[in-house]
Amino acid sequence: GMAPRARVAAYKVCWNANYVNPQGTPERGCFFGDSMAAIDEAVADGVDVLNYSIGNSPNINTPVYNSALKAAEAGVFFAASAGNSGPGPSTTSNI
Predict the structure, then answer these.
(1) Cα 30-68-47 angle, rounded to 5 deg
(2) Where are the alpha helices (DSSP H) in the chain?
(3) Does residue 37 sit in helix, strand or coil?
(4) Could you tell me if 54 and 81 are in contact, meaning their C-beta atoms sit under 8 angstroms apart?
(5) How many angstroms separate the CA atoms of 46 and 49, rounded?
(6) What's the average model confidence in pLDDT over 17-33?
C-alpha cells in the first residue's frame, strides 16, 4: 500500500442509546463535548490527520470548529466532510 506503516486511531463520539432524560428528550447523537474530547485526545495521541465525517453547524464559531482550529495549530491536518443532506441547494453543513 501507499503507507505501510500507517496506523489508524478511532474515537467514538456518536451514541445511539435508548435513554430518555427527565425532560423527555432522547440522549443520542453526536454531542459537541464528545467531539471536542476526541479531537483533543487525538492531538495528545500524536495523530497527523483527523477525518471528521460528522455533520456540523454551518456557523464558523462552534465548539467543534474551535477544537479543529486548535488541532490545526498543533500541526494536525483536519479534514471535515461537507455534510450529507443533499441533493439540494444549501445542504452542506461543514464549511
Answers:
(1) 95
(2) 32-45, 63-73
(3) helix
(4) yes
(5) 9
(6) 83
